[in-house]
Structures are given as structure tokens and as C-alpha cells.
Amino acid sequence: MTSGDGVVLDVGALRMRYDTTEVLRDVTFQARRGEVLVMLGPNGAGKTTTLEILEGFRTRSAGEVRVLGVDPALGDEAWRARVGVVLQSWRDHAKWRVRELLAHLGAYYRPYSDGRTQKPWDTGELIEMVGLTGQAGAKISALSGGQRRRLDVAIGIVGRPELLFMDEPTAGFDPAARRDFHDLVHRLADLEDTTVLLTTHDLDEAEKLADRILILAGGRIIADGSADELSRSIAGEAEVRWTVGGQRFVHTTTESTKYVHELFKQHGDRIGDLEVRRASLEDTYIALVRRHESGESGAAVHTLAEVTR
């Protein structure tokens, strides 16, 4: 197990057992600095357990795990100051006001500033980032469910983490809040070089956010790659749609580029409404999970090369 080349998360043969039930079986993956990973999987697949082990909240049964170069089971306060966590739920402090709570929590990170990163986020800037400017002076008890979820995200990033874990962070978000959240994740990854690992059941969200998607089923990683790479690994075919002279045509092919080239050689600028569609992430996800459940998949897929070859 080696770390380097900007590797922030290094997980090898991770296993978790409760009595006789094995929840995680040989989970293996890496994440690099500034990368956004989205973990998908059915309920009970082990997503939350995986995050809790990486966060240092749960002790694994076996395997090697390095988070920012440290075994999370041994992480000290300085290590925790580099990690942000957005839980599915938490017991909030209803009587606190938003600005007061974030300023209070942020103060704990101040001793861990370094030459590269000034901790914590400025409270006003953080509140604006998560879209709570209008509620900055409000008591937490007065916030709506979606506003509380925005506050959860703010608490998770208040210390300007190098690595951010989020368990279903957009649950309860309306479409506008979800779009704002996506912008925030892209800002953290692109401008702050933050590595993000999140779980979600929203496949559209996964496709918009992820540099790489991990699919966990039966306690194993059964797929690892970008949405497009996973789509190509399953379908291998694309659906080409076009019109000529007002008549609509559809053709399925494994060589879409070549086929479209031949179309234009034959019909030229008479072609209209041209579309090339690959399997959606939803199609891919369902196919991979069903393949695994039926026993067709065999060994777990751990590397991008295995997915795409």
C-alpha cells in the first residue's frame, strides 16, 4: 500500500464485521488532492460504515487505511483539524444563532493555521457561501429543514478542511439549494484543492459532481470510474438519432463516431437534430448492481483499467 502523487485517501482490503455479518469486504480505492468522489450503492451496502471508518469514528475489522497519511483510528487533534465531516444528521444547538455558532466552532481551528491555509473561514464569507446570509442572526431552532442542512455543510467546512466527507448532504434541499451546493463543491475542489468524498442516492447529482464514481454493493466496490467510463463499460453501444427531410431515424452502434462520419458523407447538411446517446448513469448503476446481485460480476472491480478494458 503506497501513498504519493497527491494521494489523500488510500484504502486497501478494508473489512468490517459485526458478529457474523460482514458489512465490508476488501474495499479498495484511492483519492487524490482536489478530486471529487461520489459513492453510490443500495441501502445497507456499507456506504455510511465506510465513511465512519475513514473519519475515525468506527474501528475497522481489518485492512489498511490512510487518510492524509494517517491511520484514522490513531488520528490526533491536528489531523482532525484537516478533515471536515457533514453527517446525515446531528444534534444541533437550537438556542444558538447561526453566526455565533459558526464563529464559536471556527475558533477551535485557529491554532491549526499554517503558512498555506488560514483557518477558519471568515464567518461572514462562510455564511454567504452556504446561502444563509439572511438567517445569520436567526436562532437555529427557527431554521427550516433545508436551512439547517445548509448549516450542516457550513459546520463541516468551517475549518477549511483538506478532505471533506459528506453523507447524503443534499437531503432536504430544494432545486435551487442543490444547485448552490454543487457550485460550492466545485469551488472547494477547484479553488481550494479540497478532496471530497460524498454519498448520495441522487444519480443526477452524482453525474454532475463526480470526477469518479464508486459503486458499493454487497460490501464491495463493484465499479470505479467516471460516469462516462462506467457507461461505456456496461453498454458498449450508443444510440444515434437524426432526421433527414423531416423523417426521424434511430440506430444503435458500438462505433458512434464512425457511424456519424458515414452519415454526413451520405447526407451532408441535410442531417438535422443529431443526437448521440450513451446509457445514462441510472441505466449503468442499475445494470451493475443487478449484475452483482445475480452473481454475474465475479470479483469486485477495483481499478479503472478493469472497468474500461
Give short descriptive properties of this protein:
disordered C terminus, 11 helices, 34% helix, 12 strands, globular, single chain, three-stranded antiparallel beta sheet, 309 residues, alpha/beta, six-stranded mixed beta sheet
The gist of it:
The chain is of the alpha/beta class and 309 residues long. The chain has a domain at 229-308. It contains 11 helices and 12 strands.
Layout of helices and strands, plus pairs?
Layout: E1 7-18, E2 21-32, E3 36-40, H1 47-55, E4 62-67, H2 77-80, E5 83-86, H3 98-107, H4 123-129, H5 145-157, E6 163-167, H6 175-191, E7 195-199, H7 203-209, E8 212-217, E9 220-225, H8 227-234, E10 238-244, E11 247-253, H9 256-267, E12 271-277, H10 281-293, H11 304-308
Parallel strand pairs: 3-7, 3-8, 5-6, 6-7
Antiparallel strand pairs: 1-2, 1-4, 8-9, 10-11, 10-12
What would you say this structure looks like, in words?
With 309 residues, the chain is of the alpha/beta class. It has a domain at 229-308. It is built from eleven helices and twelve strands. The protein has helices at 47-55, 77-80, 98-107, 123-129, 145-157, 175-191, 203-209, 227-234, 256-267, 281-293, 304-308, and strands spanning 7-18, 21-32, 36-40, 62-67, 83-86, 163-167, 195-199, 212-217, 220-225, 238-244, 247-253, 271-277. Helix 8 (227-234) crosses helix 10 (281-293).
